[in-house]
Design brief:
The chain has nine helices and six strands, in the order E-H-E-H-E-E-H-E-H-E-H-H-H-H-H. It is an alpha/beta fold. The strands form two sheets. The chain has a three-stranded parallel β-sheet, with helices on both faces. The chain has a three-stranded mixed β-sheet with strand order 4-5-6. Strand 5, helix 4 and strand 6 form a beta-alpha-beta unit. The chain starts with a strand and ends with a helix.
Amino acid sequence: MDCDFRGASRRAPAPLACAIHGALEALKPGAIHVNMATVSVTLAARFEKSHRERGVGYVAAPVLGRPNVAEAARLNIITAGEAQALDRVQPLFDLIGQKTWRFGERPEQANAVKLAANFMIASAIGTMGEAVALARGYGTSKAGFLDLVTSTIFAAPVYQGYGRAIAEDRFEPAGLKLALGLKDLRLALEAAEKAHVPLPIASFLPAF
C-alpha cells in the first residue's frame, strides 16, 4: 500500500479486530494507522504492540459527536499515541474536527477517556429519566421540568439533546443502539477493574 495513513472506525470489537489485522498486513513500515473506534483499553494496548512490532505507528482517536456533528466537521477528537505520529496525522484531524485533545503517548489512554465520557452520557440519560419520573409523579409537566433543568443547572449539549428527545417521546432513530451503549458500559467497567478503580454507579446502569 502506498499511503502513509489508514483510518478505521467500527463499533463491533470482533469485526474491528479482523479489520485492524488486515490493515496492518497491508501497511508498510513507517505508515500510521489511526483507529477512531471505541474499543477496550486491553484491545488498544494489543493493537499498539502488534503495530510497533511491524514498524507501523498506531494512534487511537475516538470521537465525541453525533453523525450531524461529524457532517459539519465539528467533532471533538480524543487522541493518544506517540507525539511524532500525532503530529503527522493532525492535518487529517483538522479536516474533520473542531478540536483535537491529546491525552498521552499510550493509545489506550484515549480509549479510557472515551469510555469515561460515554459512561457520563449513560449516567446523564438515566438520571434524567428517573428525575422526570419523580417530577411527573407529582403531576408536573415533563417538558416544563426538562426545559427548566436543561436551560439552567444542566445547560449542556448532552442534557439538552437527550432532554428534548425525552420530552418529545422521540426515541427513534436512536443515536446509539442500546446494545452498543451497554457494550461501552461493560468496556468502562473492564477498564476500571484493570486500573483498580471502583465505579459503583456504572455497575448499576446495565441493570436498567
